[in-house]
Write a structure and sequence with these properties.
single chain; alpha/beta; DNA polymerase, domain 1; TIM Barrel; nine-stranded mixed β-sheet; 10 helices; 16% strand; disordered N terminus; disordered C terminus
Length: 367
């Protein structure tokens, strides 16, 4: 499993350099090793043919190249795929691939469970167990790329796995150092080489970490807003008690790199008779004044025991019209993967002790 002693997945260049030096090898071997791991996706040292036979043997004797283990792989009627992944012998997370006509995004998790308790989110009902390590985050992407057979880069440069959204289980800014290491590996131009413009990090509003995220990663930012006043937002997103709407929006205005070409996305789940009135829409337009922004309206995706209902389609359309008329793009997100509980807000995994035999790769579902 990812995170086991000796696993090279998730190590940055400096850490790989230390290992190469410890094996008595020349520094140029780091670049070769990086190429095999992150450009070609090779998981067997024996196949790294540009390395000497002696080095391959030394690496195989002490290290591995393991991705998360697939416990369950589901495919929705709309093509969405969801993996239940074993990060060790006890802890599970979920990742979701959302395809479009000529591209697709991977929704990646950053924690086992979640430190937050957002009331509309199924993940929020699962207590935080632990942060994911860099290799466990990178491994989600590498597994998805392998499933889609996209090692190495396609000749025409187009990929079905073209984007990342850090919107899965957990709050990425409460695991920032590990998320930063993982995304930096993914963005490295000599490996996976995914542009920072193709990565969006979603936060519930950890205000003190937002500036650091912009300065050190420079990825696009999505903010889970979901309400236009502190009373309602605190009910929906308890973190609002610590970082209320005013402070959150000030941090958005100051987010490094934000501008007309790189707008901040505000996520707004549509909850019947909670946050979906015309007055709420007008107040949202007022609050966002001066922020280069767009608004993703998310029809609420139900889950067992959920305390809310989705706003009716006519109500969502009226809300979207007001926001659009106010000068902000407000697309309504089309639910994907509802039939396999893979839609926004539906992710949850039961983290239990599992037999070693269960933590093996599952066959892909039928197309």
């Amino acid at each position: 499993m990812t995170g086991a002693p000796g696993n090279l997945i998730g190590l940055d260049r400096n850490e790989l350099a230390d290992i190469v030096a410890g094996l008595g090898e020349a520094p140029f071997r780091v670049k070769q090793l990086w190429h095999w791991i992150y450009f070609r996706g090779v998981t067997d040292f024996a196949n790294m043919t540009s390395l000497s036979g002696a080095l391959r043997e030394k690496l195989a004797a002490s290290f591995n190249l393991d991705w998360p283990g697939v416990v369950r792989h589901q495919k929705s009627a709309d093509g969405t795929m969801k993996w239940l992944l074993g990060m060790d012998q006890r802890h599970l997370v979920e990742s979701v691939y959302i395809p479009q006509d000529d591209r697709g995004a991977l929704c990646m998790s950053s924690q086992v469970g979640c430190t937050l308790t957002c009331r509309f989110c199924h993940t929020g009902t699962q207590r935080l167990v632990r942060n994911l390590e860099p290799g466990e985050i990178v491994g989600q992407f590498m597994l998805a790329r392998d499933t889609l057979d996209e090692w190495p880069a396609p000749v025409d440069g187009r990929r079905m796995l073209s984007n990342i959204v850090m919107m899965g289980m957990g709050e990425p800014l409460y695991n920032f150092d590990n998320v930063k290491t993982a995304l930096s590996i993914i963005m490295d131009p000599e490996g996976i080489a995914l542009s920072r413009r193709r990565i969006t990090l979603s936060t519930a509003g950890v205000v003190p970490m937002m500036k650091r995220c912009g300065e050190e990663l420079g990825v696009d930012l999505a903010v889970s807003l979901h309400a236009v006043n502190d009373d309602v937002r605190t009910r929906l997103v308890p973190l609002n008690r610590k970082y209320p709407i005013g402070d959150l929006l000030d941090a958005c205005r100051a987010y490094p790199g934000a501008g007309n070409a790189r707008r901040i996305t505000f996520e707004y789940v549509m909850l019947k008779d909670v946050n979906d009135s015309d007055a709420d829409a007008r107040e949202l337009v007022r609050l966002l004044k001066g922020i280069p922004a767009k608004v993703n309206l998310i029809p609420f995706n139900a889950w067992p025991g959920a305390p809310f209902e989705c706003s009716p389609a006519r109500r969502i359309a009226s809300f979207a019209g007001i926001v659009n008329d106010g000068g902000y793009s407000a697309p309504v997100r089309r639910p994907r993967g509802r039939d396999i509980m893979a839609a926004c807000g539906q992710l949850k995994s039961d983290t239990v002790k599992m037999a070693r035999s269960a933590m093996t790769s599952a066959p892909p579902p039928a197309s």
